[in-house]
Design goal:
Oligomer: single chain
Number of strands: 14
Strand content: 15-25%
Structural class: alpha/beta
Distance between the termini: 41 Å
Largest sheet: 8 strands, mixed
Number of helices: 7
Radius of gyration: 18 Å
Length: 307
């Protein structure tokens, strides 16, 4: 099942596998785990240990409110930032399930806030936590925890967090649901695919915030999940990458399920991969790793032109 979805997207690498490039101080290598939906295990942690990336970002929907994955994440030694998604509420309208996970994650969770990672030197701004997309809607669990936060207040919280970031650090906006404005087709990065008619299901508050932030500083990268790559009702695959005229890259990382195996029986773990060089985005890709951090498959979405 995994391979049926992945094989049309991944490019096989020849030889004994991928070799980690030599790390330079000017290079920033970030791995992003898309919607986990309970899929996180020892092999994920083995891959991260072998790759030794500069930072790990998680876009939410860790599970359906269980505490196991947040506990495991807090034991990792990587610089990390996380935002929780709508599934992380556990369908508990009281907000208690959501609050327990926030308590476990502590400062790792950056919803409506700023998390600066030193090292490696990265500013991560969190969007609205527990979002389910669809414009602006605060579910009952989120409202129980955070109070009634309207569209304008939510946008301004994200904007203010970005303005408080060190202007010399590259800025990444971390969201569960991506912003509105990326297209209204079912296969667009935030397009509604489970119900006709297709429409733009992105977050309006996030789109407003990005527009305001860019009046003061660049926003090179917005990463999110929520809208799975495999479309409903056999409609094909979602476009997971977009880049606008202002130079902002939008990356949907929700390859679900992210655990699987290939025809050779190799266990695979999906991570999205981003590289910055001197604060400038250089590469964006989806990668499927196996034991020891080997890289049997990857899909390159963007690579900066060499001057």
């Amino acid at each position: 099942m995994f391979w049926a979805a992945a094989k049309t997207k991944a490019l096989a690498l020849s030889g004994a596998g991928w070799r980690k490039p030599r790390h330079r101080l000017a290079t920033l290598r970030i791995v992003i785990a898309g919607d986990l939906h309970g899929q996180w295990d020892g092999l994920d942690e083995e891959v991260l240990a072998a790759l030794a990336p500069d930072a790990l970002l998680l876009v939410g929907d860790l599970s359906d409110g269980q505490q196991l994955i947040p506990k495991r994440l807090t034991r990792l030694s990587l610089p990390m930032a996380c935002i929780l998604g709508n599934h992380d509420t556990g369908r508990d309208a009281s907000g208690r399930t959501l609050q327990r996970q926030l308590d476990l994650l502590g400062d790792l969770h950056c919803g409506w806030g700023l998390r600066e990672l030193h090292p490696p030197g990265l500013a991560v701004v969190g969007a609205r936590p527990a979002s389910a997309g669809g414009g602006h809607y605060l579910n009952r669990a989120a409202e129980a925890v955070f109070g009634p936060v309207g569209l304008e207040e939510s946008a301004e919280r994200i904007h203010a967090a970005a303005l408080s970031a060190d202007p010399h650090l590259p800025l990444v906006v971390l969201a569960h649901s991506g912003p509105s404005g990326l297209g209204s087709g079912a296969a667009d990065p935030c397009g509604r695919d489970w119900k006709a008619p297709a429409c733009d299901w992105g977050d309006q508050d996030l789109a407003l915030a990005i527009d305001r932030i860019r009046r003061s500083r660049p926003v090179p990268l917005v990463v999110f999940g929520h809208m799975h790559h495999r479309l409903k009702r056999g409609q094909g695959e979602r476009q997971s990458f977009s880049r606008d005229r202002s130079g902002t890259t939008y990356l949907n990382t929700a390859f679900v399920p992210r655990h699987g195996e290939d025809p050779q029986g190799r266990a695979l773990r999906h991570f999205s991969w981003v590289e910055f060089e001197d604060g400038v985005l250089q590469e964006v890709s989806h990668r499927w790793f196996s034991h020891g951090g080997t890289l049997p498959y990857r899909q390159t979405l963007f690579r900066a032109e060499v001057a």
